[in-house]
Every structure is written in structure tokens, then in C-alpha cells.
Design goal:
The chain is α/β, with parallel strands linked by helices and 218 residues long. 33% of the residues lie in helices and 22% in strands. Bound molecules: guanosine-5'-triphosphate and magnesium ion.
């Protein structure tokens, strides 16, 4: 979204950042559940595959002088085989790549998602957008899950800002991961000039969210 760190307003109103964050990963990895937990504090065992893309908005009081509006783009796992990711990724500021620790195939696909991302969106200076890896369903670690070994090394090698084990079910580490991603996004954008009016962009984007989330449609 080529976000624009807003400058402090003359009236003393908080600065606002509108950030577009992609949530991608294989089918059933838990992307929608992570978002639902984060935004609505809800969890359901029931699985309903996302079709196309869905949206959610979370407003964070980042600090007393800064408001962050996180626009979360919940991209269906099946979209890796479709043609729409280029459209969804446009102007994204950061991403979560989610896998399911109880299904190793979802971890194996992580690098496919990462290279899809890096080939289609980047920062104005050409660098990849910050991406954080989520090892989701960590509540299943004891039964049938496993965190792959050497995750720190994996992240370093493949350009992830970091990783978290998360559980949408038990509400583990989701707020922490989001905070970490936002920090990385804000740092990555510090040197970019402000482009156009945040106010217009926020208004348009929120209207878009309302309209599109009703239809779950691209
Ligand atoms: P697509 O929309 O098809 O790409 O899937 P998704 O990644 O959005 O997965 P979704 O959030 O719909 O979750 C798939 C299934 O995993 C659902 O049955 C969820 O209840 C379950 N699930 C998601 N997160 C967790 C978790 O942290 N722990 C457990 N135990 N189950 C989870
Ligand atoms: Mg989904």
C-alpha cells in the first residue's frame, strides 16, 4: 500500500499509519483462524475454506501519539495455484506466512509462498517486504505436531524477519507476532518519503473492506 508514515498533525491528533498485511500459507494452515482470534477474539473448530480473499481491520493504539490501522488480507490457500496473488499482493507492506505444525507439507510450501511474495511485491527501495513466519497450531505440539528444527537459521537464510509458534485455538503469541511485524514494517519504511494523503486512502480502503468482505470475493 506504499504506506505513508503520517507526520504529526498540527492539532496534536495522533499520527496514523495504514498498513496492508498479507496472510498467506497453505490450505487449512489456520490463516483465517489467526485473524479471527486477533481481530474478534474468537475461535472455531469448524473449517470453512476461504474463497479468493477476505479482509479484516484491526486498529492498534501503537503509542500515545500513533495509531496503526492494520488491513489484514486473508488470502485463500488455494490461491497459490491461481492467478490472483499478484493483484492481492499489490502495495502490501508486510506479510505473515502461516504453516500448520501438524502437517509437514504446509511447512514445505512455505518457501513457495515466500518466493511468490518476493517476486510480486517489494519495498520502494527494492528490498523484500517484511515477512514473519507463523508455526501455527502449537497447541498440538504434544500430540501430533512438531516445530521444524533450526527455525532461526531457516528464517535467516530465507529472509524472514522472524518466526513465532502460535495457536489461534489457545491464543498463543498472536498479538506478539503482530506487534513484531508492525515494528519491522515501520522500521523498513522509516526512510521512505510520504507520498499522498493518508486520509483519502484510509477512507477508500475502509469502504473497500466493508464492500468486499460481505461477498468474500476478489
Ligand atoms: P484456507 O482458507 O483454506 O486457506 O484455510 P485457513 O488457513 O484459513 O485455515 P482455517 O483458519 O480455516 O483453519 C483450518 C482448520 O484448522 C479449522 O478447522 C480450524 O479450527 C483449525 N485451526 C486453526 N488454527 C488452529 C490452532 O491454532 N489450533 C488448532 N488445534 N486448530 C486450529
Ligand atoms: Mg481461510
Amino acid at each position: 500500500m506504499a504506506t505513508h508514515p503520517a507526520t504529526a498533525t498540527a492539532t496534536g491528533a495522533p499520527r496514523e499509519h495504514l498498513l496492508k498485511v498479507l496472510v498467506v500459507g497453505e490450505l487449512g494452515a489456520g490463516k483465517t483462524s489467526v485473524i479471527r482470534r486477533y481481530v474478534h477474539q474468537l475461535f472455531s473448530q469448524h473449517y470453512r475454506a476461504t474463497i479468493g480473499v477476505d479482509f479484516a481491520l484491526k486498529v492498534l493504539a501503537w503509542d500515545p501519539r500513533t495509531l496503526v490501522r492494520l488491513q489484514l488480507w486473508d488470502v485463500a490457500g488455494q490461491e497459490r495455484f491461481g492467478n490472483m496473488t499478484r493483484v492481492y499482493y499489490k502495495e502490501a507492506d508486510g506479510a505473515f506466512i502461516v504453516f500448520d505444525i501438524s502437517r509437514s507439507s504446509t511447512f514445505e510450501a512455505v518457501l513457495k509462498w515466500k518466493s511468490d511474495l518476493d517476486s510480486k511485491v517489494h519495498l520502494p527501495n527494492g528490498n523484500p517486504i517484511p515477512a514473519v513466519l507463523l508455526a501455527n497450531k502449537c497447541d498440538q505440539k504434544k500430540d501430533n505436531g512438531q516445530i521444524p528444527p533450526q527455525m532461526d537459521q531457516f528464517c535467516k537464510e530465507h529472509g524472514f524477519s522472524g518466526w513465532f509458534e502460535t495457536s489461534a485455538k489457545d491464543n498463543i503469541n498472536i498479538d506478539e507476532a503482530a506487534r513484531f511485524l508492525v515494528e519491522n514494517i515501520l522500521t523498513s519504511q522509516q526512510s521512505f518519503p510520504k507520498e499522498d494523503k493518508d486520509e483519502d486512502k484510509i477512507k477508500l480502503s475502509e469502504e473497500k473492506i466493508t464492500a468486499e468482505s460481505k461477498t468474500q470475493c476478489c
